[in-house]
Design a protein that fits this description.
The chain is α/β, with parallel strands linked by helices. The protein is about 50% helix and about 20% strand. The structure holds ligand C2E and magnesium ion (MG) (2 copies). One magnesium ion binds next to strand 18.
Length: about 600
């Protein structure tokens, strides 16, 4: 065997010629050369069957044959085999151009002219086989590449529809699922879940544990047999959406929400740790007339503010949201547009009837909404961050007012003006320094100003709040705990905070003359405050009986409609001048 054929010795070669002598000759030649799988055929009509049962690598094909010409056979093979047609070398005696062209058009690779030159025959066969091999290797590679690309595309498609951490459906799939279900039913139940406390888990135990918590949670929710959910998907890391997709009534929404909250908030065991998250759920109960995106949005709007709660969407929520957004737009320019002003509510000495100080209370007169209560706009200002500039404005107004009153000698040396300070202000690391500087600049002693903070405001970041309050207390400012009794009501922290005043919340005062428990509580707070040497202020006193009781308990100051509502400066100063000693309240005492 020569080097030429050794590479292709097992190539399947089919010789087709009606002349047995030619077939014999070529077969001998090839077998001598070392080819082991050479077959000869003299009947062109049997070739197709042979190719069907076993496709040759190469066909040596005569053109002139009775029954079926080589060209005809080629044409038929092309029709049945298309691209898979075996390689063909045409054997021809005549060198007529026309036949050659036809053969080439039908895919013939080469020609061998009779009588055969042996060396040329072997070389051309070898060349054709080599070309075939190259082509088939290339096409194999192309196929492999194609299938790899297809596989990767499939993978990427799956990944592009998954949350990478939990493997849950992503936004796109959530919206598609809702779209699909919406066409089947109008009663589409969609839950928007807000998970709380994940950041704390991350900070406390590491972000790996936070990730594991999310995965464990998603696995747990998917195994709930009593919540046959259609889809659990991830809207954002800590916001998940559940599509229930069945006909649903309000009572079902309630049952499912309560069950989901319970499952979401259950402790999760991870290695040696037990962690848990808190959750809130907003529910959209209908898909009618809404796009999938709007359905998710309505569920999100319905999210309640408090943890462990659920709420279903209603029109009021939307209107509320709109009002908040409009108010927040208006609030942004309220200072520049001169729409804010302060009123002052007297605090009256229980023993003498003298007005010892005032609380500055903010008012917003909006050209679009009229008078808006601070109960409504202060939380918006806090959420939007406007409270920082508004708070500074309030402080500067109060300082200026106090300077004015002292200059006019309308108030005495010990008269105080109190301002309410939101937790966001207290969280500003330069708040205390700023206030100290502003007061100094105005030439005002610090003790003539009081800061009112709420318990919940302090709890946000006790450490930071403490620093600020300590600086202020050290500088001489009065520090009052506002709305005492409504927040954490922890007496323990009062010992560590530099507090000088306790303001007992109106909630206790307003019922104390008819509710024994409120009365006892108020009494206890006043007693305790006395022990700590705090000044006590009772808020929201409206009834003479309340006043009498508070007087008997030893409360120091009274703030309430019984004596005066929040007033404009001039009215307030008149009351400061007259005091309340001559009024019925104090007269009856004498
Ligand atoms: P607060 O600091 O507890 O103020 C006392 C609230 O009780 C005031 O409501 C006052 O008008 C009201 N009030 C006083 N006496 C009575 C009474 O006898 N009966 C009744 N029913 N209410 C009485 P206002 O002015 O609507 O302020 C509400 C809250 O808004 C304040 O509660 C305070 O938390 C906040 N706020 C007001 N001004 C400011 C401010 O400048 N900055 C901050 N951060 N919050 C403010
Ligand atoms: Mg207050
Ligand atoms: Mg209060």
């Amino acid at each position: 065997m020569t080097a030429l054929s050794s590479l292709f010795s097992t190539a399947d070669i089919l010789v087709v010629d009606d002349n047995p002598v030619n077939v014999e000759l070529l077969m001998d030649l090839l077998e001598d050369e070392g080819y082991t799988m050479v077959e000869g055929m003299t009947d062109p009509l049997q070739v197709e069957a042979r190719i069907h049962s076993k496709r040759p690598d190469l066909m040596l094909l005569d053109i002139r044959m009775p029954g079926m010409s080589g060209l005809e056979l080629l044409e038929r093979l092309n029709t049945t085999w298309g691209e898979q047609v075996p390689a063909v070398i045409v054997l021809t005696a005549q060198i007529d151009e026309e036949t050659r062209h036809q053969a080439l058009e039908l895919g013939a690779q080469d020609f061998l002219t009779k009588p055969f030159n042996h060396i040329e025959v072997l070389q051309r066969i070898h060349n054709t086989l080599q070309l075939q091999r190259l082509l088939s290797e290339r096409s194999e590679k192309a196929n492999l590449l194609e299938s790899l690309v297809a596989e990767r595309t499939r993978e990427l498609k799956i990944l592009s529809r998954q949350d990478p951490l939990t493997g849950l459906a992503n936004r796109q799939v959530i919206l598609e699922t809702i779209e699909q279900l919406r066409s089947d039913t109008n009663d589409l139940l969609t839950f928007f879940i807000a998970l709380e406390g994940l950041d704390d888990i991350g900070r406390l135990h590491g972000y790996d544990i936070m990730d594991q918590t999310l995965c464990a949670l998603s696995a747990h929710i998917q195994t709930l047999t009593d919540v046959p959910l259609r889809l659990l998907g991830v809207w954002s890391t800590d916001q998940w959406v559940i599509v229930y997709g069945a006909e649903a009534t309000h009572s079902q929404a309630e049952l499912l929400s309560v069950r989901l909250l319970q499952a979401l908030q259950a402790p999760i065991s991870l290695r040696q740790l037990s962690v848990s998250v808190r959750a809130r759920i907003g529910v959209s109960c209908t898909g009618f007339g809404r796009s999938p995106e709007q359905i998710v949005r309505t569920a999100a709007i319905a999210l309640p503010a408090e943890d462990s709660q659920w709420q279903s969407y209603n029109q009021d929520l939307e209107e509320n949201l709109q009002r908040i957004s409009q108010l927040s737009d208006g609030l942004q320019m309220a200072i520049e547009n001169n729409e804010l002003h302060l009123l002052y509510q007297p605090k009256v000495d229980v023993r003498s009837g003298a007005v010892r100080g005032v609380e500055a209370l903010l008012r917003w007169d909006s050209p679009d909404f009229g008078r808006v209560s601070p109960v409504e706009f202060i939380p918006i200002a806090e959420a939007k961050g406007y409270i920082i500039s508004i708070g500074k404005w309030v402080a500067l107004q109060a300082i200026a007012a106090q300077v004015r009153w002292r200059e006019q000698q309308a108030v005495d040396e010990h008269f105080t003006v109190a301002i309410n300070v939101a937790s966001a202000q207290l969280m500003q690391p330069d708040f205390a320094d700023w206030l100290i500087a502003a007061t100094e600049q105005a030439g005002l002693p610090a003790y003539s100003l009081e800061i009112e903070v709420t318990e919940s405001g302090l709890m946000h970041d006790m450490q930071l709040a403490m620093q600020q309050l300590q600086r202020l207390a050290a500088a001489g400012f009065g520090i009052a705990i506002d709305d005492f009794g409504t927040g954490y009501s922890s007496l323990a922290y009062l010992k560590v905070l530099p507090v000088s005043v306790i303001k007992i919340d109106r909630a206790f005062v307003s019922e104390m003359h008819i509710n024994n428990q409120d009365q006892r509580l108020t009494n206890t707070v006043i007693d305790m405050a006395r022990n700590f040497e705090f000044v006590t202020v009772a808020e929201g006193v409206e009834e003479p009986e309340q006043f009498k009781l508070l007087q008997a308990m030893g409360c120091d100051l009274i703030q309430g409609y019984l004596f005066a509502p929040p007033l404009k400066e001039q009215m307030m100063l008149q009351l400061v001048a007259s005091g309340f000693a001559d009024t019925l309240m104090f007269a009856s005492q004498a």
